[in-house]
């Protein structure tokens, strides 16, 4: 299959679902002239609605940043998670195939079981929670419904305009003498600004699955220790959650140049927050 070159394409031909989310806001800064849709504008679980919008707008590129990302909430609302994170992306893929559009979709490190120290793009999937199962379903349905897709798996997102680990830990650090953070879950933090910029590069790459995170590996405790002075390590057993988390979810990127180190990215994010306040 001949891959279309997207680099010279007008950003006006880009359509983004999920513009109200953390990643959606970062995408607005990267491609401000794209068409952006929130959940109130378009429900991605509405097959007819998706088809109606894409047939009307006829974008060359569709970026799906819409998702149900409450990992613990997915355990209580499994059907909804499977619909939003699984069936919905399948609807988008089918509509993209009909109009010949490229689809960029974001998936997760949670499609893996965490039993290996790191994961490559072609490693076997085996999610251990409902969120991971729903994200894997989205990957499967996209691949079944079209060829010209870019699935970007990412992990541990932080950025403006949404609840994230960095903001939560900073707030707790100001309120209490010690902040207990798990030290036996290992992965790669990802800054939404860097991911949004990288997305524009991925569009012009070959169809397939990409692992995109900031460079560098750490535990949640090591991550927190980079920006607060009072982090204290604890085990997952001491901090139980409804959804089981993979012990290791390090995504190895083999296809594109790496992003900057997560320490540099989080330092910039915090500095940006301080300038705003």
Q: How do the strands and helices of this protein lay out in sequence?
A:
Elements: E1 14-17, H1 22-30, E2 35-37, H2 47-57, E3 61-64, H3 71-76, H4 78-99, E4 102-108, H5 130-145, E5 149-154, E6 157-158, H6 165-175, E7 179-182, E8 186-187, E9 190-191, H7 192-203, E10 208-211, E11 218-219, H8 220-225, E12 231-234, H9 262-276
Parallel strand pairs: 1-2, 1-3, 3-4, 4-5, 5-10, 6-9, 7-12
Antiparallel strand pairs: 8-11
Supply the CATH architecture of the domain at 11-162 and 188-214 and 249-259.
3-Layer(aba) Sandwich
Q: Classify the helix fraction into a percent range.
A: 25-40%
- Uncertain runs are 1-12
Number of strands: 12
CATH topology assignment of the domain at 11-162 and 188-214 and 249-259: Rossmann fold
Q: What about the largest sheet?
A: 6 strands, parallel
**Averaged pLDDT:** 94
| CATH homologous superfamily classification of the domain at 11-162 and 188-214 and 249-259 | NAD(P)-binding Rossmann-like Domain
- How many helices does DSSP assign? 9
CATH top level class name of the domain at 11-162 and 188-214 and 249-259 = Alpha Beta
Shape: globular
Give the radius of gyration: 18 Å
Order of helices and strands: EHEHEHHEHEEHEEEHEEHEH
Distance between the termini: 50 Å
């Amino acid at each position: 299959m001949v891959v279309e070159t997207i680099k010279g394409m007008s950003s006006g031909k880009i359509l983004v679902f999920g513009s109200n989310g953390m990643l959606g806001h970062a995408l607005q800064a990267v491609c401000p002239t794209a068409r952006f849709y929130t959940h109130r504008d378009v429900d991605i679980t509405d097959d007819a609605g998706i088809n109606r919008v894409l047939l009307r707008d006829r974008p060359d590129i569709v970026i799906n940043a819409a998702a149900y990302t409450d990992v613990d909430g997915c355990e209580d609302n499994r059907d909804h998670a499977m619909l939003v994170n699984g069936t919905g992306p399948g609807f988008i893929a089918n509509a993209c195939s009909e109009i010949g559009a490229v689809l960029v979709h974001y998936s997760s490190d949670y499609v893996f079981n965490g039993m290996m120290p790191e994961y490559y793009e072609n490693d076997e999937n085996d999610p251990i929670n409902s969120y991971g199962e729903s994200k894997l379903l989205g990957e499967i349905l996209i691949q079944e419904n079209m060829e010209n897709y870019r699935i970007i798996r990412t992990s541990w997102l932080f950025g403006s305009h949404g609840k994230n680990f960095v903001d939560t830990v900073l707030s707790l650090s100001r309120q209490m003498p010690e902040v207990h953070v798990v030290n036996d879950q290992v992965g790669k933090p990802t800054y939404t600004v860097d991911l949004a910029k990288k997305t524009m590069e991925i569009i012009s790459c070959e169809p397939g699955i990409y692992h995109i995170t900031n460079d560098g590996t750490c535990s949640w405790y090591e991550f927190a220790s980079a920006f607060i002075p009072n982090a204290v390590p604890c085990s997952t057993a001491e901090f139980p959650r409804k959804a089981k988390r993979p012990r290791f979810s390090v995504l190895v990127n083999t296809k594109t140049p790496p992003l900057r180190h997560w320490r540099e990215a989080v330092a910039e994010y915090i500095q940006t927050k301080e300038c705003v306040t």
